Structure prediction request, 353 residues.
Amino acid sequence: MEEFQPTEHQHVRYNPLKDEWILVSPHRCRRPWSGQTEQPPEEPSPDPNNPLRAGAVRPNGQRNPDYTSTYVFPNDFPALLEEVPEPPQPKHPLFQAAQAKGTCRVMCFHPDSTMTIPLMSMDEILAVINEWIEQVKELGQRYTWVQIFENKGAVMGCSNPHPHCQIWASSFLPNEPRVKDRCQEEYYNENGKALLVDYVEQELKLKERIVIKNSEWVALVPYWAAWPYETMVLPINGSPQRMTDLNAEQKRGLAEIMKQLNTKYDNLFQCSFPYSMGWHGAPTGPSTTQGDSPHWLLHALYLPPLLRSATVKKFMVGYEMLAQPQRDLTPEQAAEKLRQCDHKVHYKNRKTK
Prediction:
């Protein structure tokens, strides 16, 4: 029997954050691709009719102010409303419903529709981070969960190229953080240490999956990553549990690593790299206090779909939907490819020199 080679032989990897397994099939990287290709991601261009730009009139008739930094407003088509009636009690346990209250907001990062995170200045990114903190601080006083997320690129369902994210706050704990909360609490009770704090320490020793790091943060491809170039951004000093507890050094370091990681992403395939990203931290609510969730560590997730080029993406269908996540490229191979990409000079700026 030949010796196992992780870059040659299929195997499964455990994701302790979600109590699930990932199938890794690296030999599939050799197969020719004759399936669907996407149009290369479009470069953002100025649109005088873009409803998110400064001074624009949105479809509901509201006019945006002439903002010069970040701008937050209620989503004109929210998935969650603050006042809704409560569903009736179920007549059978198989047909349960519960009340869902919340609010949805849109947050513009920058007044320029052609701008993206890797092209923004450090101070502009820091303004985004500070506004995220203010939103979580305000909404977290009332709601159990505050989900910040950004869908970037048409291939990820983003309907507007203007640099922006969404913030959904809910009275309930959604599925993903609910599972993470359980898994992290079980690990903490068994080991006396936060799962992700332990994980970061191990990754910093191994260095196999680290993409980039500074004095406060590390961006890495998780050992259990499902998407081809998926990354996590984690604080390296063991805290905080929530975004609202970031200190000044962590905020500055986060702005730096966001800019550098996104520059690497764009340079990988010479395109404005599409992804869904978001933040997970300890649940919020009126009864929460700083340090009350020692099993949690704040972290960001970047989930990009591109696999082989700017036009070939990973499809989460079939086996992934009916059995479990599957990937071809190993996390270590993905991390190495991202490490090799320039994090200082964006490809757009190289063209002008």
In short: The chain is about 25% helix and 20% strand. The two ends are 54 Å apart (CA to CA). The mean pLDDT is 93.
